[in-house]
Structures are given as C-alpha cells and as structure tokens.
Amino acid sequence: MKFTTSLKKNHEFKRLYNKGKSAASQCAVVYCRRNGKAENRLGITVSAKLGGAVQRNRIRRRLKEIYRTNEEKFSTGYDIVIVARMRSRYAGFFELQSSILSLIKKLNLTAGGVPAAQNRRGRETEAAK
RNA sequence: UGAGUAAGCCAGGCGGCCGCGCGGUGCGGACGCGAGUGAAGCGGAAUACCGCUUUAUCCGCGUCCGCACCGUGAGGAAAGUCCGGGCUCCGCAGGGCAGGGUGCCGGAUAACGUCCGGCGUCGGCAACGAUAGGGAAAGCGCAACAGAAACAUACCGCCGAUGGCGGCUUUGAGCCGCACAGGCAAGGGUGAAAUGGCGGGUCAAGAGCCCACCGGCGUCCUGGAGACAGGGCGGCCGUGCAAGCCCCACCCGGAGCAAGGUCGAAGGAUUCCCCGCGCGAGCGGGAGCGGUUGCCCGCCGCUGUCCGAAAGGUGAACCGCAGGCGGACGGGAGCGUCCCGUCCCGGAGGGCGCCGGUAACGGCGUUCCCAGAUAGAUGGCCGCCCAUCUCCCACGGGAGUGGACAGAACCCGGCUUACGGCUUGCUCACAUA
RNA sequence: GGCGACAUAGCCAAGUGGUAAGGCACGGCUCUGCAAAAGCCCUAUGCCCCGGUUCAAAUCCGGGUGUCGCCU
User: What is the fold, at CATH topology level, of the domain defined by A4-128?
Assistant: First the structure.
C-alpha cells in the first residue's frame, strides 16, 4: 500500500476505540481519527469469535484488499481501524466492499470534490517519481 | 451388483489482470568511507614542488530507498501438545531412598508408549481387526447389597451306615422309630462370583472317592532363537481385582527458542573494597555459605578454627575481640537482573536407481536446495475444464452455488483427533454364464 | 509459541472404587387475616463427552471438548 503504514501497538488501538469516531454495519465497525501526519495508518482486527485461523485470515486479507483497491477514495492523515463482525464471515467480497465503502461515506472519510482530485493528482506525480 | 476389509495416492487444474513476503541480478537516487584527477584559497619554498582546507568530477566498496526482470512461497494433518529425540542453558565423583514410565517374544531405530515379524487370547461366516498380554503358592488390602457362608461356612435340606435312646418280633440276632452324637454338600435359595463341568459307578447319603470326555495345575520329553506348541505321567487345597498397594525386569537429571548468545542504548538493585558515622560492655564464633534442581549419606568449591615439619587429620576441647560489631549514605571496581531494539541460533533432508532383509529398515551411487514471516507474507477479480449440491425444461442441456478438515513460527520421528475424493487387492452374499 | 490447572443440580460446592453429603435458590405443606421469618418435605437414570479395566467407575486408565491461569 503506497501511502499507508500499519497500526501495531495495542495502545494505539485503544486510543481509537476511546477517542475516535465510529460507524458500524453488520459486517464491520470502522474507527477513525486524525493523526496529524501525511499518511494514513490502518489497523485490522479479526477476533477469535469469527472462526479459526483460516476464516480469520481470509477476512483480514479481503479487508486489506478492499483498502488497497480503494485507497484513492480515502482522505489522508487518518488513523483507521476496521473491526470485523460476524456477518463478514459469510459475506462475499463485493458485499463486504460495498459495506465498507458506505461506512467510509458515513464518516466523511471520502476524498470527494475538487481538492481531493488535486490531492490525488499530487499523489500520482509523487508516485511517478 | 451390494456389503465389508486392507493398502496406496491426490488435496481441484490451466490461463489473464492487479497485489504481498523472501532471495538473486541489473538500473537509478541519497548518504558514508577509500583512492585518483581538475580548480580555488592558505602556508612553506625558487616558478617546479610539498602540506592542509573547500569544491567539482570519476572509480570501487558498504548501507538505505525506488523501479524492472528472474526464482520461490503453507499441511496431511501445519491442529491437539500425548510420547520420543536433536539443539540451547543450568547441574553433574558415587551410592541409597522417594517419584515417574514401560511390561508376551524377537527385531528396527538417534529414541520412543512408535514401527515390523511372530505367539497366546478375544471378536467376526470370512477377508481381517483388537489386545497395558509379567507375577494372586512373597505379603497387605478390597469384594457394597443380598446370602448360612466371600479363605473353612451350613439356613432350608439329605443321611443317620457307626455310636446312643425307645419300641416290636424274638432271643443267633434282626426290624422299626427318634434325630442326641455325628456324616454330607447333591438339590433349593442369594449373588457378578459358591470350592472344576457333564455323565456313570460306588455309597446310609454324598463327595475326583473311582472311571470316560472336557477344563485347569504340576512335572517330564520333543520341536523352536524365544514367546509358545504337541505329547506322556500324576492328580484337582476355591475365586476375582495388580489401569488397588505391591513384587520382578528395564528405562528416566532439570527446564525449555518467551531457551540461549551477540551488539547498541538506558537506568535500577546487589557483592567486595575504601572513606566517613553510630554503639560502650559484653559481643561474636565453636563451623558458615554455595553446589549436588525432591530427600538423605557422602562428596566438591570458597572462607575459617585447632593439631602437625609436611602429607594430612579435626569438627571438640574451646577460641577471638575495638585492628570488634552494627546499620545508613557517598565514591570506586566487579558480576548479575530487568526493559527497548538489531543480528544469530539451518539435514537422523527429499526424489530416482541398485543391493541386503519376509518386513520395519539399512547400505551404495546419483541428483535437488525445497517457506523463513515477526501483529505475522499465498489474496481479489475474470474465462475455460473437471468434480459436488440445488432448481428448471425433458433422456441432453441451461442457471445458480462452490469445494471436506483446515494456516508454518527452532527443527525432526511417531501417536491421536478432524475430514473430501480416487485407485487397487482380498472376503462374503446375490444374480448370470 | 510454550507450560499448567479445572469441569459434580439454576448457583456455591463435599465426595479417591460399592445408595452422589451440605448450603442457597425454585416448588409444595404447616404457621398467618395476608406476607416475611421459622419448621417440614421435594429435586441428579446420573457427575463435560467417547472408549477401556472391573462383578461394579463421579472416582482408575486412554482419547477428545470447553473454561481459566502463568511465561515476553
């Protein structure tokens, strides 16, 4: 992922749970908070309630893929945590994707409008270098 | 065809686009180091030349970042952590006790509770499977309830031959009764289990008391490497439990990669020494500490007392004392501990072929490097084929769904558990020829 | 990843081979005008599940499931 590092420490997750904004659907809960940096930081949580290692790995990889393919739609400078819920175990990829995108829209995380387009163009030139 | 049984194999395949971890190669950029060249400045000098600094360029090496290409990338159970090892650290003269484990015989192995071959027993019509399967005449213990009795017992019962008592006939004695002494364990009843089973003989009634068959025990002979098998003889003095204690034989040091090492950074506690402080007449020792990783003996190391010239002995007579005792702070040295981060910790290896062995397995040759992440890399979408299930039209296609169990974390050998499919051999039943 | 412990009624729990104690709760009865308190009575075809040993298993042995804890 080009402009994103992963969130690792437990206290960072806890800070988001307490102080961040959240939105939820049956598939997942998304927490977000401004981090004051030029990049996004992403954390994904899949608890043991959702199944064995194989099921949890599949959910985590799908969430990661959804973020990767839709990265340009996100605005930058945020810490984001996605917590998977029970329905994501049985949902297909596209159902999960539309669910996450609607949650993003609910949190106003989408980089919509003109400045976002400029931002995006800037990213692309940066990437071209 | 159906049912069963054993062994082996696979873990959907191919292609396209985007994406991830690791390794390699190449290119580019940044930084650092080294060497060369040019320019400028300063100093020495004589203009040449030498030294230093700055800067530019080029080459080499290293680190980091980016891009491209190539290679590679989860399992048969990766799981449970039930056994066994490697590896790492700690410990280790030896012995005993305790504790744990294994338990038919022979072999395989690094080792095993695993595997292979065989024996006995049990289950199955069979193929085949299961089997903690040493010892109960070494000892202790338990066997509830029921039952008379659960090591030596007789409730109901059978008998009463022998002895006793009574009666009758009659007088050689015999017969009948009683059930007092006594004999018996067949039958009933209880129980999971009742003193080998069944049949016959004998007998007062019975009983291995005797006999035939079976079972079991002891002993002898034969076969076998052995477990054991077969046979002869003797003769039945009870049973179960050792996955109860135990006995016998053999094995076992403890912990675990969150072990351990290394480098860098940071702080704290501890040991010894030194300095300084307090105490004011008893104080301290007579062995102390540490190790022997459950305990003991014993042993070892350091410190220390006494005897002895020493080797060595000693653990008590008694010995020492302001150069003592005590605790707190500061300084120095040493050794550990904790925390943060970096790096390291890689063959009982796989494939193929030949040979030895019934087999497990072993030997030789050849060939291949075959995951190394560190919140954890394998994913997403599309097309075709194959396979599963559902629905629809009708004998073939269409649509949808999508694989069963399941994800490495130091590594191996097993076991167990979860689970989809394919192939082959064998057994039984039915049908046909 | 490694190491260890536990599971018995709705809850807390005792029970180490022979009838599964006890307390709380629930229910019923007595008492009361009604309740509370008190007293009496009742509740495990079975001890997390599956096998094995045994005449007999909550207990002994093996395997599994679940829960909890410790080690960075």
Answer: Ribosomal Protein S5; domain 2 (3.30.230)
